[in-house]
Design a protein that fits this description.
The structure is a homodimer of 464-residue chains. With 464 residues, the first copy, chain A, is α+β, with helices and mostly antiparallel strands. Chain A is built from 13 helices and 20 strands. The first copy, chain A, folds into two domains: 278 residues, Aminopeptidase, CATH 3.40.630; 128 residues, Alpha-Beta Plaits, CATH 3.30.70. In chain A, a hairpin with a 2-residue loop joins strand 6 and strand 7. The complex binds zinc ion (4 copies). One zinc ion binds next to helix 3 of chain B. Chains A, B: InterPro entries: ArgE/DapE_CS, Cyt/Met_Dipeptidase, Peptidase_M20, Peptidase_M20_dimer.
Chain lengths: 464, 464
């Protein structure tokens, strides 16, 4: 608990460049902890971050560590991050977000569940073996970064660079950067990808006064609203031709699996605070969060977005929207479909303005085989610690690093969350329960043991 | 010229509260100038401004002054403002915006044309009579404010309070806070009003992650885009039932008047930088800027509007749009029409989200009779100074103070601009030409003389 208190006390907010010294201190603290445990530790320089104004700032180093190097054993690499989302008491926190506070068995603080406690739980798992003077059943490596919350800046290049060195003998990658779906423990076998688009409509050469020019020009904002309105139906159906058609059909097996998952639709509805959800039965709701695409319009840049009543005709407006990717969608194809569709819709308007559509992120979905020995080992470990079967779940969000690990190393990946379903990652009053923290550590201890049982020569199959 | 240099040097930006001391100094400077000329001057306290954070800041005082009080003469009141729009060299100014710079006969500087030089021209006009030891042909009052650019905070109450005192003996109000349409001098006889709306769609109780919740909730942004898209057709037609129907038909007389106005459509098009305008002939273009309503969507508050790629589902989004008002529209009716229409369109979507429509500004249009003796006097004065007939023009924008003066005092108003058509009010490189400044002063001298000729008992007719 003391380590978690120390870690949470550091405001390692990677989105705020003024907190960068804190972030550097955080990485040092992680490295020092692993060094004191006798690990072979490196702080890997991953270069600099370019800021919007053209200046640069040093990225937090990535910590790599190694415990054991017995070539006859499997080697796992635990990925985690110790940077956090922003948090201020004024945002609506009941307690100081950087002062770990224990209330009724819940440990409140920014970064507890996402992702400091899970990283510490893995460290405690290794320490437990050491404390009992037992040799580790598998070699354990750590790869801990400090830029996850802002897009893992610099990590892809680092992974590529270390493919044939630090990562060369890694057999399996373990990620514990997500949460359960209910009180039942879970293994996560899929994440959605994300294609993020900018649609820019440009007209006059500068912003115009709506009194003086209103009625004289076709306003870019009107055009942009017009084309955005063709993306989604009122009920949430995607209207871009080809998108829905590419989605892998829901199999009976999958339906059955979803049906068996423990998930309280009403609790979920109440948590979001909406009157009714897009789908009111469990299977449809989970399927649309995990294995169907969605379009979200995030906002518009260049228009008036402040309080007050500015009477401007914005000259250039850029909509930001994204489409969550699922098998068998292909970002390159989605890019073509969206671009072609928006341009054809725009052409019908006969507007004098110019449209530019760009895809700025094209992250593929990730999907693992739940029958893979890594997952089988996970089920056994969960059964051992919690005395129940795990839910096999997906994440609606994107964890691009899983896909990168898979594409670069070709190794198998498992996501083994220990965060609670109500931990409030990225929200106010983030917490991790003592129960999840302690039982989670036990799970990791058990899991290392189970992974050691996987036959070394067994042929592995993974959906890519 | 020296007075203008001193005035421009003061950064009297009323939108920036950090410049408030400058603004106070500006008002003092105006008062002092008028005092030195022997006027009866007051600095009228108009109270405080409430800031968004609940704090208050003192409003700049309003300067009132009086020259002459002969009850046998007409009394005119010149309204003007000495606050300015924001300006920074980095915005793209060729010269320091607060250092009056003379280049080829143009005086560059923030606030030159809007509205410091016109105010000074009026002061010079009074001085000219004094310099020639001539008595003023009419009593001249000044009412100079310092909050025009941010909505004339406090002025309505001040005008109401002074109706039976300072304003009681005023016969005519003169406003020179606009510009010509071409190189030909102009008199302005109308402005459009403005109904400014907020349309707020609220769904989840807080912003959601689009990965985790995308596909589970009907997003407020989708709903908002959907209803905004029903306001205007791609070609710019207003789709809200009842709006177009309320517009006074264009008379043959009006058409003829527009036809005779000097206006270069191509120059206007090039200035805006668009490929083609909404209307390509002079009459339609002018008519749609001046005497037809338009809808402009200014932006959306609550959505993501920064650079970058945030994956948020905004929980509450508020569109800001406004409808320019023309005779015979009525803001109270427009409010009902818009609210009813948006709610009916929204109801068809069967969304779980909540819509709230509010009209936050309801400014009526203003229209004067161009045959009114005040305008006839203006035509004669222009003929005398420039040796040509003025264009009779309107402003597409709103000058709410005209309407307030009219509603509170019941007195007649004339707008007599001296700013050039290309002065760039509110833009970078704002200027006033020496020519307009000097000839404008002459025009005001001549105009005071012409106003003195108006028969005191003549019955006046004004369109309200
Ligand atoms: Zn995380
Ligand atoms: Zn996170
Ligand atoms: Zn002005
Ligand atoms: Zn202005």
């Amino acid at each position: 608990m003391w380590a978690l208190r120390d870690w949470v006390a550091i405001e390692s907010d990677s989105s705020n460049i003024q907190k960068r010294p804190e972030l550097h201190r955080m990485m040092e603290m992680v490295a020092q902890k692993l060094r004191l445990m006798g690990g072979t530790v490196e702080l890997v320089d991953i270069g600099e971050q370019e800021l919007p104004d053209g200046q640069t700032i040093t990225l937090p180093k990535v910590v790599t560590a190694q415990f054991g190097s017995d070539p006859s054993k499997h080697t796992v690499c635990v990925y985690g991050h110790v940077d956090v989302q922003p948090a201020k008491l004024e945002d609506g926190w009941a307690t100081d977000p950087y002062n770990l506070t224990d209330i009724n068995g819940n440990l409140y603080g920014r970064g507890t569940s996402d992702n400091k406690a899970p990283v510490l739980a893995w460290i405690h798992a290794v320490k437990a073996y050491q404390a009992l003077s037992m040799v580790l059943p598998v070699n354990v490596k750590f790869l801990i970064e400090g830029m996850e919350e802002t897009g893992s800046n610099g990590l892809d290049a680092m992974i590529l660079a270390q493919r044939d060195t630090f990562l060369s003998d890694v057999d399996y990658i373990i990620i514990s950067d997500c949460g359960w779906l209910s009180r039942r423990p879970a293994l996560t076998y899929g994440t959605r990808g994300n294609c993020y688009f900018f649609a820019e409509v440009e007209g006059p050469k500068q912003d115009l006064h709506s009194g003086v020019y209103g009625g004289a020009v076709i306003e870019p904002m009107t055009d942009l609203i017009g084309i955005l309105d063709t993306l989604i139906s009122p009920s949430g159906r995607i209207l871009i031709p080809g998108i829905q058609e590419a989605v892998a059909p829901l199999s009976d097996e999958e339906w059955k699996m979803y049906q068996d998952i423990e998930f309280d639709v009403n609790h979920f509805k109440n948590k979001t605070g909406v009157n009714h959800l897009m789908y009111n039965n469990k299977v449809d709701l989970l399927a649309h969060r995990w294995r169907y695409p969605t379009v979200s319009i995030h906002g518009i840049m260049g228009a008036f977005s402040d309080r007050g009543t500015k009477t401007v005709i914005p000259a250039k407006v850029t909509a930001k929207f994204s489409i969550r990717q699922v098998p068998d969608m292909d970002p390159a194809t989605v890019k073509k479909q969206v671009t072609h569709y928006l341009h054809s819709v725009f052409a019908k308007r006969k507007s004098p303005n110019k449209l530019k559509v760009t895809m700025v992120i094209g992250a593929k979905p990730w999907l693992a085989d739940t029958q893979h020995p890594l997952y089988e080992a996970g089920k056994v470990a969960i059964k051992r610690v919690f005395n129940m079967e795990p839910d096999l779940i997906r994440e609606g969000g994107t964890i691009p690093i899983a896909r990168t690990f898979q594409d670069v190393t070709g190794k198998s990946i498992i996501m083994m969350p220990i965060g609670g379903f109500d931990d409030g990652m990225h929200s106010q009053n983030e917490k991790m329960s003592r129960y999840n923290y302690i039982e989670g550590t036990k799970l990791f201890i058990a899991y290392l043991n189970e992974v050691a049982q996987i036959t070394k020569t067994k042929k592995l199959k993974l959906y890519i």
